[in-house]
Amino acid sequence: MINTSGRRKAAVARVYLKEGNGTIIVNKKALEVYFPLPWHQSAIQAPMTLTENAGKYDIQVNVCGGGVSGQAQAVRLAISKALVDINAELKSPLRQAGFMTRDSRVVERKKPGQKKARRRFQFSKR
C-alpha cells in the first residue's frame, strides 16, 4: 500500500493506493457522489488514464479543507505522486502533463484599511 499527500490552496488530500480493480473512494463515499461534476472526476482520473493504470489500483482518499476544485486538484497531485512511488518511469509523462507540480497559488490576505486584498474603499475628494 502506497501512502502520499497532495495540497492545493487550503485543501489537503491523503491518498492510499493498493492493488485492486479501480474503485475510488473519497471520504467514505464513491467518487461520483463526492465529486458529482464530470470535470472534477476526469481531473482525478487523469493521472491513471495517462499512465494506462486505470482499473489496476484501488484508491482511498481522505480530503479536507478548501473548496471542491481545490480538493479535486489536491487529489490529482496525490495520485500522481503515488504512481511515481510505484513506478519512477511514470514521472516524465506526468510532469509533462503538469500533474507533478504543486500549484502554489493561494488567496491573498485582506489588508487593513482596505475592503479586500487589493480593493480599497471608495475615495471621496469632498
Structure description:
The protein is α+β, with helices and mostly antiparallel strands and 126 residues long. The protein has a single domain (2-96), classed as 2-Layer Sandwich (Ribosomal Protein S5, domain 2), CATH 3.30.230. Helices cover 33% and strands 23% of the residues. The chain has a five-stranded mixed beta sheet with strand order 1-2-5-3-4. Helix 2 (38-50) runs parallel beside helix 3 (68-86).
Number of continuous helical runs: 4
Measure the end-to-end span: 68 Å
Mean pLDDT: 95
Radius of gyration: 18 Å
Task: Tell me how many strands there are.
Answer: 5
Oligomer: single chain
Helix and strand run: EEEEHHEHH
CATH topology term: Ribosomal Protein S5, domain 2
Which properties best describe this structure?
single chain; 126 residues; alpha+beta; Ribosomal Protein S5, domain 2; 5 strands
